[in-house]
TrEMBL record:
The modification N6-(pyridoxal phosphate)lysine is found at residue 646. GO terms for cellular component: cytoplasm. SUPFAM superfamilies: UDP-Glycosyltransferase/glycogen phosphorylase. Belongs to the glycogen phosphorylase family. Its main location: cytoplasm. This is Alpha-1,4 glucan phosphorylase. Keywords: Allosteric enzyme, Carbohydrate metabolism, Cytoplasm, Glycosyltransferase, Pyridoxal phosphate, Transferase. GO terms for biological process: glycogen catabolic process. Its cofactor is pyridoxal 5'-phosphate. It comes from Bacillus salipaludis. One of its GO terms (molecular function) is glycogen phosphorylase activity.
């Protein structure tokens, strides 16, 4: 149905009637989207079935990626590209008077994630399928993804997101494969045949119904599966208060949690975690059993990867299945479990490490709790033998301590592999945050530097640049991203550099149109497009960016001889709804924007844009249009970052601290093709340990800082009164935990260098090219191949 344009057109016309029940003449654009989506899913289903048959028959090792988040974005065009039918469809539709890019607007972003962690999971799925690897995703089918952000009077307002409003064309509901998940109740132990048997009584069960989505590889027949679980009431027994029961069960897959900054909903979040884990394990073990029978060799054929600690209950759940249902002895069960589970850590921020109070954990998951307790006791006993009397050490690494379950400790103890997501991050894990564990299990720790799906973030998002690349070095780079290095040969080819510049300009025009449409502000595309898009967090230091903008504004106002290269500062960021400080920063950005954008004295020298509702589909329009990529986290805090890689592959130059993957970007492009500044991670960590930083000194000694910081509270922004006092206080009263003022001067300096460099277009384009040419390393194809070789052992 997609092999020729005419064949496609014929089928499409017939299908509009069948799928939508209307004549083509009467049909709407949404009908066309639905029809096309259905056709693609059907087209894929043959390979989907074959892929599964192949996996069943060859009985090779499979990896199951468990993640509480998947930030998929839209799938229509990516699927067309991966299937190699984009042109047939685009041209066929065109002849029917239908614009493919308009149809794309009818697909909602699948936004089942907060940020980098969820997007990484989505990029990994693409690479697994494209590399023909047997890897499948498991997640939750949240009814509402990450909230939709509106900006009202400069403030963030959250609306429930509704991606399923018109259904999800890609999913297939598999009601037959539903499983039950028990909560609450109590556990009874009985002796049976000389063995303790545990029974979970009076549990409330929730049914998990799988909704499968095909994961189509690029230019291959492999179609893997993303299985998302929906929470539904179990049919029996009929509940005494059926409506309340229905509401409560369905709430388990109702919302994605935008971090758990606030306490409410904690139980629900733990329920979600066990729901995902228990449903996925039941499904994994069922299919394993069909192929291999006995579970004793599970770890030879199955790897279960947990994306951060959210699915860490996979460890006690697998123990429960092996012991309670399969009658394994503890030691053998533990051996199988430890060798089946691998774990990725995504942050070293202590406030972000998951800990569950026993008062919540124990009653909700009584049998699982018993097993965690046993794991902890055995682990502590081993420690006691190794370090007799060293209570301090034992208390530090215990899985249960201070009436809490420490999920990261459980993950490290119960897995065979623990990886960080960039070189620096892994070193900090090994030598600082998790050093006690590293001493115990050095063989478990390894690094897997993050990557991005270059076929989404370059091939799909930036068709013009992709076209130029393919014209220049051929199309192999789409499957062998390291081929991009061949572009380096063109670094002295002026006409090539000019074409690069022209493409950037076109992409900036495209974004300028979006900005104008959404904000009403006209931006000059000759300016530097300086972009910071990412979740709003104190450690990511959007505030440093804003203070620099305020400084520039003050210069424009007060120093008539001040000159600067025109800039458009672009922000996109969602703040967790309960994160008070982050929301203040959003208000500050919008307040500064309001003032700057309407000041005639500023004119086109500077504009500040806050783009509402930052999400995958908007990101795809922003990255290709960026000149400067802001990666300015406090060194040591950003585990990796992946936006930095998306900018790089689209030719933006990084201004960044020596943090996360920025360090590896610098290693690849060389010091002369990146703008670094600020404290190093060692310096930051040294200050945390030994003090020695007084933010007040920087405030008093640098008039630029004093002026901008004072403006937060002295009425400079009319009508906001004490709105920004908390920000002022964080910098001065609380001694600036994130070293914003300490890094300010070096940030201002490097920004000046950036402006000067931009004035030399050939030099700029050369630097930009060096970034594109060296970005192949950051393809998630490379990352996934490393996971497959070093951790999972899959082919
Ligand atoms: C969560 C929270 C929640 C409570 C308040 C503080 C806080 C701080 C950080 C986080 C993030 C948790 C895990 C996470 O999303 N990590 C991100 O993972 C990306 C993919 O590996 C990586 O690129 C980012 O650097 C890392 O922040």
């Amino acid at each position: 149905m997609f092999s020729s344009k005419n064949g496609f057109k014929k089928t499409f016309l017939k299908r509009v009637e069948m799928v939508c029940g209307t004549s083509f003449a009467e049909s709407t654009e949404r009908d066309h989207f639905q029809t096309l989506g259905n056709m693609i899913r059907e087209y894929v289903s043959n390979d989907w079935i074959k892929t599964n048959e192949h996996y069943r028959e060859t009985k090779g090792k499979q990896v199951y990626y468990l993640s509480i988040e998947y930030l998929l974005g839209k799938l229509l065009r990516q699927n067309l590209i991966n299937l190699g039918i984009e042109n047939v469809v685009q041209e066929g539709l065109g002849e029917l008077g239908i614009d493919l890019s308009e149809l794309e607007e009818f697909e909602a972003d699948a936004g089942l994630g907060n940020g980098g962690l969820g997007r990484l999971a989505a990029c990994f799925l693409d690479s697994l399928a494209s590399l023909n690897l047997p890897g499948h995703g498991y997640g939750i089918r949240y009814k509402h993804g990450l909230f939709e952000q509106k900006i009202v009077d400069g403030y963030q307002v959250e609306l429930p997101e509704q991606w399923l409003r018109s259904g999800n064309v890609w999913e297939i509901r598999k009601a037959d494969l539903a499983v039950k998940i028990p909560f609450w109740g109590k556990v009874e132990a009985k002796m049976e045949n000389g063995r303790l048997q545990f029974q979970h009584l009076n549990a409330e069960t929730i049914t998990a119904v799988p909704h499968d989505m095909p994961v189509v590889g690029y230019n291959t027949d492999t179609v893997n599966t993303l299985r998302l679980w929906n929470a539904e009431p179990s049919q029996f027994p009929i509940h005494h208060d059926i409506l309340r029961y229905k509401r409560e069960t369905e709430s388990v897959s109702e919302f994605l949690y935008p971090d758990d900054t606030h306490d409410e909903g904690k139980i629900l979040r733990l329920k979600q975690q066990y729901f995902l884990v228990s449903a996925s394990l039941q499904s994994i073990i069922k299919s394993y059993r069909q192929q291999h029978g006995n579970l004793a060799q599970l770890h030879e054929y199955v790897c279960i990867h947990i994306n951060d600690t959210h699915p860490v209950l996979a460890i006690p759940e697998l123990m429960r299945i092996l012991i309670d249902e399969e009658s394994f002895e503890w030691d053998e069960a533990w051996n199988i479990t430890k060798n089946t589970i691998s774990y990725t850590n995504h942050t070293t921020l202590t406030e972000a490490l998951e800990k569950w109070p026993l008062r919540i954990f124990r009653p909700l998951l009584p049998r699982i709790y018993m097993i965690v307790e046993e794991i902890n006791e055995r682990f502590c006993k081993e420690l006691w033998e190794r370090y007799p009397g060293d209570w301090d050490r034992i208390a530090k690494v215990a899985i249960i301590a201070d009436d809490q379950v420490k999920m990261a400790h459980l993950a490290i103890v119960g897995s065979f592999s623990v990886n960080g997501v960039a070189k620096l991050h892994t070193e900090i894990l090994k030598n600082r945050e998790m050093s006690q564990f590293y001493q115990l299990f050095p063989e478990k720790f390894n690094n897997k530097t993050n990557g991005i799906a270059h076929r989404r973030w370059l091939l799909k998002a930036n068709p013009k640049l992709s076209g130029l690349i393919s014209e220049t070095i051929g199309t192999n780079w789409t499957q062998a991203p390291n081929e991009l290095v061949r572009l380096s040969e063109y670094e002295n080819n002026t006409s090539f550099l000019e074409r690069l510049a022209k493409i950037k300009k076109d992409n900036k025009e495209r974004l300028a149109d979006v900005i104008h449409e959404k904000t009403g502000v006209a931006v000059d595309t000759n300016s530097i497009f300086d972009v910071q898009v990412k979740r709003l967090h104190a450690y990511k230091r959007q505030l440093l960016n804003v203070l620099h903008i305020m400084y520039l504004y003050n210069q424009i106002k007060e120093d008539s001889s001040f000159s600067m290269v025109p800039r458009v500062f672009i922000f996109g960021a969602k703040a967790s709804p309960g994160y008070y400080y982050a929301k203040k920063i959003i208000k500050l950005i919008n307040t500064v924007a309001e003032k700057v954008n309407h000041d005639p004295k500023v004119g086109d020298r500077m504009k500040v844009i806050f783009m509402e509702n930052y999400r995958v589909s908007l990101a795809e329009k922003i990255f290709p249009a960026a000149d400067v990529s802001e990666q300015i986290s406090t060194a040591s805090k950003e585990a990796s970052g992946t936006g930095n890689m998306k900018f790089m592959i689209n030719g933006a130059l990084t201004v960044g601290t020596l943090d996360g993957a920025n360090i590896e970007i610098r290693e690849l492009v060389g010091d002369s093709n990146i703008f670094t500044f600020g404290l190093t991670a060692d310096e930051v960590l040294h200050h945390y340990q030994h003090g020695g930083y007084q933010s007040l000194e920087y405030y008093h000694h640098d008039w630029r800082i004093r002026q901008a910081v004072d403006q937060l509270v002295n009425g400079f922004f009319p009508g906001v009164y004490n709105e920004f006092e908390p920000i002022f206080d964080s910098l001065l009263e609380e001694n600036d935990q994130y070293f914003v003022l300490k890094d300010f001067a070096s940030y201002v300096d490097i920004q000046k260098v950036i402006g000067n460099t931009f004035m030399d277009p050939i030099k700029w384009q050369k630097m930009s090219l060096a970034n594109i040419a060296n970005a192949g390393y950051f393809s998630s194809d490379r990352t996934i191949q490393e996971y497959a070789d070093d951790i999972w052992g899959i082919k």
